[in-house]
Amino acid sequence: MKTFLLSIGLLLFYSFLISGENVQSDRIHEKVIPVWSTHETFSLSNLLIEKYSDSHTGPELRVQALDSEKFKHDFGVDSDLGFTLEGNESIENKAFLKLVIGRNVIVPVMHSQNPFVGIVDRQGVSLEKLAELLHSSDAKSWGMLLGNNVSTPVSIFVSDDPSVQSVLSDFSGMNVSSFHGVPVGKVVDAIQRNPGAIGYVRLSDVLDAEYQGLADGVKLLPVDKNGNGVIDFSEKIYDNLNDFRRGVWIGKYPRSLVRNIYAVLPTTPDNEALTDFVSWVLTDGQQYLGHSGYTELAFSEKSGKLDKLLVQPAVTESSVGDNSLGRGAILAFVLLVGLGLLIHLVYLVKTKNSNASTVIIPEKSRTFNENFPGTPEGLYFDKTHTWIFMERDGKVRVGIDDFLQHFTGKYTRIKMKKTGDSVKRNEPVVTLIQDGKHLDICAPVSGTVKAINEALTDEPERINNSPYNEGWIYLIEPLNWLSEIRFFKMGQHYRSWLRRELLRLKDFFAVSVHAKVYGQVVFQDGGEICEAVLQEFGPEVWEDFQKHFLDVSKL
Q: Is the dihedral of CA 276, 281, 283, 285 positive or negative?
């Protein structure tokens, strides 16, 4: 063992000697790093860099302006980071890592005491009607919008902000640059003075001082996106700001009224200073989006963007000289050998010292139909699609059942509780994430977390590959074991319940509005559900699945 450890030490020491030759060429030591920006995002870029620099040390970041045409042709030649608004062809046609950091969201708003607020909330206003309001200055009535005989006139106010008028011109098919232009900051006053009015503004223009909610007297006008004359469940995003932001992200709000703001980086970013900056923009920096008139990302969306940024493979910066490539190859080889030896050592130590009594269950081949399990004996299962196994010391090991992961596909990230945290049965205990889409899984037992499977932090796919062995999630000291065990299922009872769950799953896809909208293939020949079927759907289907399948499973 001593020889083994000495070998690892020598290998790692040699790798540090090699890597040290290239330190001086690392771009992180540059004194000034340019951040390119088009005109539309220039003020936002300046503000973000200013706020970031107030709390972070390192190389100076300095905004460099590029007009849209130059950005289109020149960005990417010697550039590491740029900010631009959606519509720039350069980011559509070149291989960059494109991260949405915020949005320019244009919203129709009305007075919260509008006399027709009840019917508007129930049926909304169609996109066609909202566009028609902009087609001319002729008098329009609420009856025209709502499809009834009401003759009450509609007053129309359009912000004079160029970014608003540009989006609305594309949306309506006409130039609205001179249509009832109201100065930015006066739109709220105009709506508050006129209960029968509709205004077209940026979302940030009608937020309160803290950007946490709408200004007094102002209400988002619900949009009947699918034009069926009613605000469906999938369109109910207008009651609070968080729901609305999430609705914009997952496509419940008309895409024609939204423009994304992109951070554009190389597909394999190798500049640590810029990566740290963009990470900050996606987290703490979000609060400053509103100061430049933009809308921050939904909470769940931020995690997905961070995952996409941080999992990018690092590229070793080559030093000047003919031997730089050879040194890099030697360094990579040495590190790989050292890592392999270290992993082997950890495995031997764990094998030798482990005294856990977790049942070892061979993974079986799986088919996704009524004959699905194959489920192991000796485990308890809960309606939250979790399994429970009691260790010799009275603690219970908890994981996700094979059924759930079978149709979600591979997980790319997992959010877990911390050791020492209390958990309660039927309350969220772990979040499974796949490229920003997520499912919250509830605890099968109440108690205290005594250990977590830290390996899942780097390898969440262990839950998919070995759900009953290496994919365990928590070791919990139960609080109400004798009262909660009566809710669990074992063996044939669990398998019978899974068959009913499979039928319920088919029913979910049969009636899911979003599944039909996406038009994906859900069933294979013979009516069997496709493997990893949820992987093919967007976040709105995952949200519906959470509410209409998972959340009612435990009832």
A: positive
Helix, strand or coil for residue 64?
strand
Residue 391 CA to residue 380 CA, distance in Å, equals: 12
What's the pTM value of the predicted model, to 2 decimals? 0.56
Question: Would you place residue 520 in the very low, low, confident or very high pLDDT band (cuts 50, 70, 90)?
Answer: very low
- 3-class SS of residue 415: strand
Helical (H) or strand (E) element with 381 = strand 380-382
Model confidence over 371-381: pLDDT tens digits?
A: 554 577 789 99
Other beta carbons less than 10 A from residue 142's beta carbon: 20
Cα angle at 87 between 81 and 93, to 5 degrees? 65
Nearest one of 380, 399, 382 to 390, comparing CA atoms: 380
Q: Measuring CA to CA, how many Å separate 388 from each of 382, 420, 436, 495, 553?
A: 8, 19, 27, 15, 17
Cross-strand pairs, 35: 63
Cα–Cα dist 398/22, whole Å: 46
Which tokens is 32 given?
A: 């000034």
Separation CA 80–CA 35 (nearest Å): 7
Residues forming beta bridges with residue 351, ordered by sequence position = none
Cis ω on the peptide bond leading into residue 374 (within 30° of 0)? yes
The residue assigned the tokens 């094998």 is 351
Nearest to 249 by CA among 112, 438, 45: 438
Please provide residue 169's backbone torsions phi and psi, each rounded to the nearest 5 degrees. Answer: -65, -40
With beta carbons less than 8 A apart as the criterion, state whether 90 and 75 touch: yes
Per the CB < 8 A criterion, the answer to whether 62 and 49 are in contact is yes
307-353 tens-digit pLDDT: 677 655 444 333 334 444 455 555 555 566 566 666 655 555 454 44
Mean model confidence pLDDT for the chain: 79
Rounded Cα–Cα distance for residues 185 and 156 (Å): 16
Q: How far apart are CA 511 and CA 170, in angstroms?
A: 34
Strand ranges inside 255-321, DSSP E: 258-266
- Phi and psi angles of residue 200, each rounded to the nearest 5 degrees, phi first: -115, 115
Q: What torsion, rounded to 10 degrees, do the Cα atoms 404, 405, 409, 411 define?
A: 120
Helix (H) or strand (E) holding 182: strand 181-182
How many Å apart are CA 18 and CA 252, to the nearest integer?
53
Using an 8 Å Cβ cutoff, are 429 and 372 in contact? no
Write down the pLDDT at residue 340. Answer: 62
Is-contact 384 444, C-beta < 8 A? yes
CA-based torsion, 272, 277, 278, 282: positive or negative: positive
